[in-house]
Queue: 2 jobs
Job 1
Amino acid sequence: MPTDPAHAEAIELSLEIAGERGGDLTPIVYGRLFERQPQMKALFWRDTSGAIQGEMLMRVFEAILDFVRARRYADHLIQTEVVTHAGYDVPPDVFATFFGLVAEVVEETCGPDWTPAMADAWRRTLADLDHFVTHPEQVAV
Amino acid sequence: MNIATKITPAHAAAEVAATPLEELNPARVDRFYNDTIWPVFERLRREDPVHFTPDSEYGPYWSVTKWNDIMAVDTNHEAFSSADGIGLANLEAVAEQEKVMGVRRRGNAGFITMDEPDHGPARKAVSPTLAPTNLQTMAPLVRERAGQILDSLPIGQEFDWVDLVSKELTAMTLATLFDFPFEQRRKLPWWSDMIMNMPGHGPVESWQQKGEAMFECFNAFQELWNQRVNAEPGNDLISMLAHNPATRDMAMETYQGNVVLLIVGGNDTTRNTISGSVVALNRNPDQYDKLRANPDLILPMISETIRWQTPLAHMSRVATRDIEVGGKTIKKADRVVMWYISGNRDEEMVERPNDFIIDRERPRQHMSFGFGIHRCVGNRVAEMQLTIIWEEILKRFPEIKVVGEPVLNWSAFVHGYESLPVVIPYRT
C-alpha cells in the first residue's frame, strides 16, 4: 500500500533538501554503517573510490521514492535484496540499520528545515520498510 | 559459418519504422547479428513499452523494454516464474535438440531456473565462493594469470582478441572456481559455445556434434562431482554443491543444469564485456584517451561497458497469474521477456544512453546483472576479472587497435562477439 501523498511529499522534500545541503551523503552514511556494523566493511574491499557504495545509496534513495509513491517495484526489490544479501551472510537487521541511518543522516543534513511532518513521514516509512525487510517471502495475491 | 548477410543501419531503421507495430518481433536474431537491433527498442520504448508479439519462431511472447517495468517484473518472482526457462527458446531448435538429447524439462539450467522456496538454498550453496570476501583471496591468482596471457600476445601482428584474451581469461578464472584441470581449461568456453549456439554458428556444426559435446561436458563434471563428494569439503563450486545439505542430493539433471548455468554464466558475460570494452574504446577514442590519462577510470569504464554492451540481452519469465505491467494485462502462463539491453538505453533513466561515456556521474546504473532473487550471482567475479585485466593492459599496452569489423554472435540472448581482429602496435 503506497504511502499517504502528504507523507510522500514530506519524504521527497527532505531528500531534496538533504541533497542540496549535504551534497554526496555516501561517506557519512557508510561511515556510520561501518561503525555500527563493522563486519560490513570487508564486503567493500574493492570499492576504493566509494563508487559501489555511492550507487547502492542512490538505489536506496530511488527505492524509497518509489516505495512512497507508485510502489512499482520497491517493496519487491527490498524483499529480494534481503534474500540475495543473505547469500553473502548479510543479515536482515543490516537493512533496518541502514534505512534507519539514512533517515538519521537526512534529518541531520536538513538541519533547521527538518519539520515534524518529515519526522512523522520517515517514522511511518521506516516501519513500512521494516515489514518488507522482516517478511522477504513474496506471498501470492 | 554464418548464414546471414550484413545490412546497413539505415536500411534496418527504415525497415523497423515501416513494420506494423503488431508485427515487430524484437527477438529476431539477424538484427542482433547485424547490430541493427537498436531502432526496434527505441520504437518500442517510445510507442509500446510493453509489447506483445503474437507469433514468432519462439511462440507468442511479451517484451518489456523500459527500466521501471523491467524492475517490476524482475523483482516480482511470485508473479513471474523462472522454472520454465530464462531465455527465449527457438521452438524448431528445441525440437531438433530433443531428437539428439531426448526430451529434457524446459528450463533446467540450475538454480536460476528454480522458484522459491527451492531457489534460495540452492543459490546459497554456491554464493560464498563468489562473495566479495572470497574474491579478495582469489584476486592475486587472477592477476598473475592475466599478466601471463597479456605477456604472451603477439606485438605488431593481427590476432583475434576474443580467442587469445577474452576466452582465455574467463577459462582460467572458471577453471579456478571449479578447481577444473587447468590444462583442459579451454574446454570450458568451448562447451559454453556448444551449449549456446545452433548448428551453423560458433563452433557447432550439427545437432549430433552439439549433443556429443554436451554429454562430454556432463560426463567430465560427473567425474569432478564423484571426486569432490568423496573428498574433504573444499572451497570450489563443485565441492560446495557436493557437500551442501541443500544440493548434495540433487537429481543428476539438476546438477547438469547448474553446470550449464555456471559455465555459461561465468563465461559469456565476462568474455563479451572484455571484448566489448576494446570495441567501445576504439569507437570512442576520446574515452580511450581519458582512460589512458587516468587509470582510476578503469572501474567506471568497466561498468559503462557492462551497460553499453549488455552481454546478456534478455531474461524471460512466465506469468503465474494475470497481472498488469505498464498498463497492459499479462495473462497467466504468458511468456514475458525483460530486455535488459533496452532498459540500459532507456532515455528516462540514463542520460545520452547510446553514448559510451566512461566518466558518467552514475556509471554503475545499469541492469545487465538483473535485479531480484536471480540477480547475477557472479557479478563481483566478473567485475574483478575485468578490472584486473584492464589494470594489467594499461601497464603494458598504450593501445589495442581494432583492425577489422568484429563478428557478432548469432543470438538474441548472448550479446557478444565471435571474433575481434586487433593489433597491439607496441609495448610500453
Job 2
Amino acid sequence: MALTKKEVEKIAELARLELGEKEKEKFAEDLSSVLGYVQKLSEVNIEKVEPITGGTSLESVMRKDDETKCISDPQMREQILSASPNRKDDYFKVPSILE
Amino acid sequence: MNLNALTIKEAHELLKKKEITSVELVKVHFNEIKKRDKDIHAFLSLNEEGALEAAKKVDERISRGEPIEMLAGIPVAIKDNILIRGVKTTAASKILENYIAPYDATVVKKLKEEEAIFIGKTNMDEFAMGSSTENSAFGPTRNPVDLERVPGGSSGGSAAAVKAGFSVYALGSDTGGSIRQPAGFCGVVGFKPTYGAVSRHGLIAMASSLDQIGPIARNVDDAAAVFEIIRGVDELDSTSVSPPAGGWQDYWDSPLDIEKIKIGVPREYFIHGLNSEIEKNIKSVISKLEKEGAKIEEISLPYSEWALATYYIIMPAEVSANLARFDGIKYGHSTINKEEKLQSLLDVYLQSRGKGFGVEARRRIMLGTYILSAGYYDAYYTRAQKVRRLIKQDFDRAFNPPTGGVDVIITPTSPTTAFKFGEKTQDPLSMYLADIYTVSVNLAGVPGISIPIKEVGGLPVGLQLIGKNFDDVKLLKIAKIVEQLTKEIT
C-alpha cells in the first residue's frame, strides 16, 4: 500500500500541518511502510469481538461543574492567559475567521 | 560511602540520624550534574536554587526533631512532560520551548506534600514519542554506561539521571514501554503501574488510553516507596481508579514465599529477533527461580504477534487527537502576527504546528489523522480496538483460573541492549520494533516492571515482570525476590 504525494497533502491539511516538499515525499514513504506493517491485523479473525474503547472499564465519569475547582486562583488565571501569544484583556485574540 | 548511589531508604535513614543534611545531599547531586551532564545531557532544566531552599526547610524540621516523610529531603528528577507550577515544561518540543506550567501535576503535588526535592526536568523524546531520546528537540541524552549509545526512551533522561548519580530517583511516563525500556537500557528499575492507578492530571497527554506515570529507581523497594506516594484516585483524572477490593496490599508487611509463586513464561516472547545472550540471561534467572521453589509454567499469549501493529494504530490515532490542542492560539510556539490584519486563522494553525512539531511528532499526527479519517476508521481503528480486546483476553486467561492462574509473567524488557546513535533513526519501523515486548502491557492496562539482570557485553539487560491488574504490590514483591536472586547470579 503506497500513499501518493497528493494523499499526503490531503492528510497534512486535515492535520493542520504545513510540510515541506521534500518532507511530503519522505512521509509518503514512511507512512506507507507503517501502514503496510499494520495491515498485519487483517490476519486476525475479529468476528464477534467487541472493540475496547478505553484503558479502564469505567463509563462516563462525571463530576459537578464547580467553577471554584477550576481556576479560582487569580495568579494561575493570569499565568494561563499570559502564556497566550496574542491576548486582549482576559481573552485570547485570534485572527478574524470571517472573510 | 558514595552519596550519589544511595537508595531512598538509605538516604532517609542518613537524614533521620543526622549523618547528612538534605542540603549536602542536594549539593553532591548538583556537583555530579555539573561534572558530567555536559556529556550525558539528562536534564533540560535545573532547579538548583529552589532545591537548596526546599532542602534547607527539611533540614530545619529535622534539627527541630520533627519526624520526616519517607521522601522528604531526597532529590527527585521529573520527566519534562509532567507539570511543576512555575517551572518550564517543554515535553522536549519546540512548540512548548517557553511554556511555563501554571499548575502542578497531581503526582508533583503529592511529592511536594512529602517535601521531596525537585532538582530538574529530564530530557525525553518529543512528546514521549520514541525509544531513544533522539527525538528530543533539544538534543539526545547519552547512556551513562556507554556514551556512544542511546539511553532508551522516551524517559531516557530520567533513567540516565538515576544511573549517573544525578538523582536518587525519577518519574517517567510509559505509553508503550517508555519507563521500562530506558530503565532496561540504563540498568535501573522502571515500574509502570496498572493503568489508572496513578493520576495523569498534569501529564502532557500522548495516547490517553495507554499513558501511565511511574517511578524509575535504583531498586524495587524504592520503586514501591514512590508508588505508595503517587498512586490514588484523583477527581481531576476521570480515568483514575482504586483497586476493586479492599485497597492496596502492604508492600512492607512480609515477603512472599517463593514456593507459592507461579510464574508464566510466554513462548511468544522467546522467538527470533531476541538477542541470544539476553535470552540466556533471562533463562538463567528462570532456572534459578525454579531451583528456589517457584513454579514455572510455559504459557501462551497467542495475540502477541499483533500487539505492535495494534499499538501503532491506537497510539497515533490518540496522538493526533491529543496534539490538536497545540494550535498557536492559547500557548506555545505561534506564528500569530499581532500587526498583520489579514492573517488567516488557518495559516496560523498550519505554520505554528508545521514549525513547532518535530519530525516524529508530525509523522505520528499524520498517521493518526489518516487512520481516523472517513473511509479508513473502521478498517484501521475499530479493527485495532477489537484486536486490543483479544490481547487483553490473553492476559486475563493467563492470570485467572481455571485457564491460567499465574502470579506474574516473565519476559525480556527489550530484544536488544542499548543501540548506537543513528542506528534506527532513518527507518521508523525499526525503531518501533524496540517496543515489541513492552507495548502489550499498555494495551492490556496491566502493570509491568523492568529490573536489571546480568549484563551482556558490558551493557545492562532488563528483565520484565508483568502482573495482573491491581496486583501491583504483589508484582513488586515478586520483583524484589528476582532482584535478590539476580544478585546471587552475577
